[in-house]
Amino acid sequence: MIALTALASAAFGSTAYLTTLSTVRWLNQLAPYVRVAGLIVTGIVLCAVIGLIALASQSVVLGFILGAGLTPPVHRRVLQHRGHAAGS
Fold first, then answer.
1. CA dist 56 to 51, 64, 72, Å?
2. Distance of CA 7 to the CA centre of its chain
């Protein structure tokens, strides 16, 4: 049960990373004052999510960190692979 909880939490961490990445990319296209306000709100939401996860069990915290930590290199590799496939 603990492994399943950690796995589900890892998926959530991965989702949180990808959602934040796309939100920041979208905010970078907006006007500077909207961008700053959006980044502040995004940071507050992330802090709240991480705070709620910290209140959960240890396996949830470890799974979230694992998912959020492994997603960036995997995401970069997928994007590189997609670029090579499109260029072929």
1. 9, 11, 24
2. 15
DSSP H stretches of helix in 1-88: 2-27, 32-55, 58-87
pLDDT, position 37? 93
Specify the amino acid at residue 41: V
Assess whether pLDDT exceeds 70 at residue 17: yes
- Give yes or no for a contact between 4 and 57, defined as CB atoms under 8 angstroms apart: no
State whether the Cα torsion 26-27-29-34 is positive or negative.
Answer: positive
Whole-number Å distance between alpha carbons of 36 and 34: 6
In order of 15, 28, 56, 67, 69, the CA distances from 12 in angstroms are: 5, 24, 14, 7, 12
Specify the pLDDT at position 30.
92
Tell me the two tokens of residue 12: 């959530």
Rounded to two decimals, the pTM is 0.70
Residue with token string 């705070």: 51
